Amino acid sequence: MTKPLFGPGSRIVLDGKNALIAHENGDSFVLFTEDAVQREVSKKVLQIAYQEGRMRFNVDSPDSEVIRKPFLTSTEAKKAEYLLAYLEPMTHYENTGSKRTAAKVIKDVVRKHGDAVMPAPKPDTLYKWFRKWTEAGKNILVFFPAGRTSRRKSSIAPEYLELMTNTIDELVLTRNHCTIARAYREFRSQAEALESKNRIPSKQAFYDHYNRIDPRIKLKTRQGNSALVQATRIALRTYEVRHPLERVEIDAAHLTMYLVDEYLNLIANKVIVYLAIDVYSKAIVGFAMDYGINIAEKSEGVTECLKSVLRDKHHDLSYLTNPWPGGKPTTIVGDPGTAIISEAFTTLAGQLQIHREVTEARQGWKKPHIESYFKVLRADFLKRLRGYVPKRSPLLKFDHSLKDLRCFMAAEFEKMMITYLVNGYNHAAQPKLNGMSPHEKWLEGIEKYGEPEMVNDLSFANSFGGNLTKRVLNPTKGIHLNDLKYNSVALQDLYFRLVKNYGDRLKVEVRWSSQVLTKVMVLDPETRTYLTVPCTKDLPEGMTLSKLKAQKKLIGNLRHSDTLKDSEEFQNVQTRARDVGRSKRTRKQPPATDAQPMSNDQLEAYFRQSDMDSNSDPALSPAANVSDVMGSDNEPSSSPKPRRAREFKIRERG
Predict the structure, then answer these.
(1) How confident is the model at residue 638, as a pLDDT?
(2) What are 279-296's pLDDT values in tens digits?
(3) Confidence at residue 437, expressed as pLDDT on a 0 to 100 scale
(4) Phi/psi at 335 (5° precision)
(5) Residue 170: pLDDT above 60?
(6) Phi, psi of 423, deg, nearest 5
(7) Could you count the other beta carbons within 10 Å of the beta carbon of residue 63?
């Protein structure tokens, strides 16, 4: 029996990755790797990996051979170094069973190490050591048998051990946990109820059983997984970058910001800012913004931020007085959100041959530069704005009223943000850069390593929309999207080419951007290429979806506005409405004529005729005589006509 090779607390390197043996789980060990991933590995697998050389112990001193064996005493460690000094040189010889070979190895080791390897063994003794070492799989622990100090079997009865574990799980390892003393009293009362012949464990044995539980398990069960992640945060690597844009970190910040339109109507209560930072120079090289009511991150925002990194932004923003660097990054680093792992961002990055690296969830320390800059952004710029809500108060209520926060329009906030990023940060001295500004660090990197690679043709990237949808392709009207129509000759040719295989209800993939509504991109499923299709409506450049919705809302409010009823657009709408109303059929009755005055003679003649026999000639009817009496003019008579007597028929039931 030998000493254990592995145990909790051992720091190892398995297949090139640093790992920590956290605790033992039966025939397996639970490892925590350097990327904070929990992994369970069988003990036999680790033993085989050690014999094959794929696993070694992580040492503090690379010159020490014995620190690789972590469970030896100081005396045993010195003896292990002494043995390895003679055993490892023997592996370089083929005839290891020869006394001459052993004598030569002993002579070389003594000449090289001197007194550290004295006294020297005899050749026969070295051969015995080497044979025992190789038969054990070159395991140095075979020379150190386990003594009585090894862990002995627990003397606690199985029924009490199970009850002890259940009591700790139910009362201690919970959110609303009790003290260990109270848990032991509960365990003692339940143990006495078992009426077992075995001795009940003492309070110290109960405490020892609790203390053997892994601290990570205690933290997770008591405070949750977020507390465990917070406690285990550790940066195991330092990223070394050699030139600008070698590594760019991208992320989004959610801001509680109240924006208004031109008529002071609230249009957004949340603003999402997408930023990209160059790790070499710490300069902000990409920016995009999205706003709305309770919105979430979109793939379009990350795509627009990547486009901002690629293009020359100084020519697009004339109000900037300082240059804003950009270019093609080598690696983009982001979190595993739906935006950066979306099909749209993946396609654009693959088209431009940009490597994408995705970190694990809730591990912001793997992209520390952008996470650190968001703190600087909030403290240095956002807290100065009147419409920004930093955080909620301890009473979980906003410290400001909404009426006081409606102060900025979207275009104003975007301009202030870009001005701060370029003039207030990129061109300002930073303590972490030894007094240099990020732009000066950028220029220093360009002078040493040359200009970053630029994308010559950005037409595909500029037209590439982050939103993907499917629309029915009409041969005459094209594509209907966002209450707009898109059509071209190439799109019609695509329809007649695909209608034979896909039928009349042909659906195509459409990529569009809410920031550019003047055109969309349609995928040709046969050639796997994109067609740029313009909008049939003459939209101005820079028309966005939010602006289009605001215009429609404004036109709709014109009908109910008293101050804008004199506008030409409102009058045209009212005129068209009246024309439509006249052309419609109506069910209204014709207007009644005014009553005509009658003289006394006319009234007497009318009553005389009414007394006549109803079977008389129709020509002598009261109506005819009245018309003769009233005159021969053609004016219509307003006298009431006698009602026709109703005839009732009784239908007999058969």
Answers:
(1) 47
(2) 999 999 999 998 888 888
(3) 93
(4) -80, 165
(5) yes
(6) -80, -35
(7) 6
User: If you count DSSP H runs as helices and E runs as strands, how many of each does the chain have, helices first?
Assistant: 22, 20
Q: What is the per-residue DSSP string for 448-485?
A: HH-PPP--S--HHHHH--SEEEEEEPBTTTBEEETTEE
What pTM value is reported for the model? 0.51
**pLDDT for position 150:** 42
Average pLDDT over residues 524-552: 80
208 in helix, strand or coil? helix
pLDDT computed for residue 69 by the predictor: 42
Distance set, CA 127 to CA 132, 319, 484 (Å): 9, 83, 88
Angle at 523 between CA 522 and CA 526, to 5 degrees: 140
Most confident of 1-15, 224-238, 407-421: 407-421
3-class SS of residue 595 = coil
- DSSP per position, 374-405: HHHHHHHTGGGSTTEE----TTSS-SS-HHHH
Side-chain-side CA neighbours of residue 159 (13 Å): 12
Average pLDDT over residues 43-63: 65
Beta strands in 503-544 (DSSP E): 507-513, 516-524, 529-534
32: which 2 tokens?
């925590």
CA distances from 402 to 254, 387, 412, 507 (A): 18, 9, 19, 45
For residue 294, the tally of other CB atoms under 10 A from its CB is 7
Residue recorded with tokens 């955080």: 391
Q: Which two tokens stand for residue 172?
A: 């201690």
Helix (H) or strand (E) holding 41: strand 38-42
Q: What is the CA radius of gyration of the chain?
A: 45
Helix (H, G, I), strand (E, B), or coil: what is residue 201? coil
Query: For residue 494, which of 509, 475, 515 has the smallest C-alpha distance?
Result: 475
Please provide the DSSP assignment of 100-157 as one string. HHHHHHHHHHHHHHGGGGPSPPPHHHHHHHHHHHHHTTS-GGGGSB--TTSPPPP-S-
pLDDT reading at 33 higher than 80: no
Cis peptide before 323 (omega within 30 of 0): no
Q: What are phi and psi of 34, to 5 degrees?
A: -70, -25
Q: Which amino acid is at 168?
A: I
Bridge-based pairing of strands 259-260 and 266-268 is antiparallel
Going by pLDDT thresholds of 50, 70 and 90, the confidence category of residue 68 is very low
**Interatomic CA distance for residues 289 and 337, integer angstroms:** 17
Give 136's contacts (C-beta < 8 A, 6+ positions apart): 142
Confidence at residue 244, expressed as pLDDT on a 0 to 100 scale: 92
First-last CA distance in the chain: 114
The DSSP code for 253 is E
What confidence score (pLDDT) does residue 622 get? 43
pLDDT digits (tens, 9 = 90+) for 177-194: 899 999 999 999 999 998
In terms of Cα–Cα distance, which of 258, 278, 374 is closest to 332?
Answer: 278
